[in-house]
C-alpha cells in the first residue's frame, strides 16, 4: 500500500507548564480534506508546526509520504503556518516567483504556475504592487498562492481564511477542492465550522492537546456537537 501523505502517531510535544500535545494520532489520505477544529490554545498550530518539522516532537512519530522530517519530500508539501515568508520590498509577482523557484520550479514552468495562481486567487491586479503595501487579506492570498504554486501533494494550512474576504474564502475553497479532486491531501485548521463543513471529508476536534472527537461534515448542527464534545472533555479533565 502506498504511504499516506501524512501519518501522525502518538505525537507528544510538551511546553514548560504542561501545555502542548499529549499523544495525537492523525492521518490525511490522498484526495481528501482533514480539518482540525478546537478552541483557542487547543494545540492546532503546535500540531501543524510539528507536522512540518518546525517543532521537534518530544516523542511519537510524524511521517510525510512515509518519511520522517529529515528525509521527507518537502518539495511535495505546501504550507501556510505561523505567517507567510514574503519579501516586503518585492512585488507580489516577484514574491510568488520566488516561492515557485524555492519549490523547485524553473524557467517558463515557474512563470506559468505564477500566472495561474494569480488568476486562481484573483491577484493579477496587484501583481506589480510592492508586498509591504498589500492589505492583510491580499498578503494572505499571496501566502496561499505561494503554498500552492507548485501543486503540492500535501497542503497544510493554519486558519487560512482568517483575513480573507468572502470572495477570497470562495476562491480558496474552489482552488483546494480542484486540487483534492486530482489527489492532493489537505490538512486545514479553522474556527469557522460552517466553512470547514463545506470542504472537509473528516473533522477532528482537538482539546487540551488531545484528539477528543470527530464531527460529521454533513451533520445538521455541528456547532452544538462541537461544544458538547469540548464540554464533555473539559468536564472529564476537571474531575
Ligand atoms: N513556544 C511555546 N511555549 C510555551 N507554550 C506554548 C508555546 N507555543 C504554544 N504554547 C501553548 O500550547 C498550547 C497550544 O497552542 P496552539 O498555538 O497550538 O493552539 P491553537 O489551537 O493553534 O490556538 P489558536 O486557535 O488560538 O490559534 C497553548 O496553551 C499555548 O499557550
UniProtKB/TrEMBL annotation:
It is found in: Cell membrane. It is a peripheral membrane protein. GO terms for cellular component: plasma membrane. InterPro entries: AAA+_ATPase, ABC_transporter-like_ATP-bd, ABC_transporter_ATP-binding, P-loop_NTPase. GO terms for molecular function: ATP binding; ATP hydrolysis activity. Residues 6-233 form the ABC transporter domain. Keywords: Antibiotic resistance, ATP-binding, Nucleotide-binding, Transport. One of its GO terms (biological process) is response to antibiotic. Belongs to the ABC transporter superfamily. This is ABC transporter related. It comes from Beutenbergia cavernae (strain ATCC BAA-8 / DSM 12333 / CCUG 43141 / JCM 11478 / NBRC 16432 / NCIMB 13614 / HKI 0122).
